Every structure is written in structure tokens, then in C-alpha cells.
Amino acid sequence: MLIIGLAFALVGALVHVYIFVLESVLWTSPRARAVFGTTEEQARATRELAFNQGFYNLFLAVAVVLGAVLIGAGLTSAGAALVYAGAGSMVLAGTVLAVSSPRKLRPALIQLGPPLAGVALLTLGLAW
């Protein structure tokens, strides 16, 4: 259960690395504008905000990856704390997106689904 939970949490981390790339590197590109539904003008006007937000997503992913590495190295308590902090924040951010913009439910579920499964399965794995 522990390994499967970490796998789901790491999928969540990969999703957030992708979001980082879209927001911090490709924000004004046609691809990023299509994903986020922004015009070229809106993307230019919000570039600094997106750049910062992208790094937030990257840092959540780093916390999950570092936590998984620590668990693999036998530092289970410290690693689990990092996975819970990173993946739990992903779940909460996805929940905020779903509640604040119901039309963005699909992206919210993509953002929160894998880390939610990861947190639940990690908890089960640690409990047994």
C-alpha cells in the first residue's frame, strides 16, 4: 500500500511539474493559453502572477519527491511529513479550484485526484 500511495503522490507531483512549465515557462504560448483559456493580452498582463504561481506548484512537487526519497531511505516519519504537506496542499488547492470555479471541475480533479489517492493509500500503508 505504501508504494502504491507514493506512486500516486508522485503522479500528482508530475502533474504539478507540468503546471509549473505551463505557468512559469510557457505562459504566453498558444499551448498554455489554450489550457488556461486566456487571450494573448490576458497572458501578457498576468505573466508575473503566473510565473510566481508556477513555482508554488513546483515546490509542492519537490516536497513530494523529496518525501518519497526519504521514505525510500528509511526516514519514514520525515518523508511522510513532506509527502503529506506537498500532496495535501495539492488536494486542497484543487478543492479550492473546484469550489471557486465549478466550470473548472475537470482540471481540479486532475490536480487533486492522484495526490488524494496518494495521501489515502500512504495513510493505509503506514497504519498497517
Describe this structure in words.
This protein has helices spanning 2-25, 30-36, 40-45, 47-72, 76-100, 105-127. The protein is an all-alpha fold and 128 residues long. It has one domain (2-24, 51-123). The radius of gyration is 16 Å and the shape is elongated.
What labels would you give this structure?
128 residues, mainly alpha, 6 helices
Record field, number of beta strands: 0
SSE succession: HHHHHH
Helicity, as a percent range: over 70%
Beta content comes to: under 5%
> Average pLDDT across residues?
97
Unreliable sequence segments: none
Radius of gyration: 16 Å
Q: How is the topology of this model organized?
A:
Blueprint: H1 2-25, H2 30-36, H3 40-45, H4 47-72, H5 76-100, H6 105-127
Helix pairs in contact: 1-4, 1-5, 1-6, 4-5, 5-6
Concise account of the structure shown:
The protein has 128 residues and is an all-alpha fold.
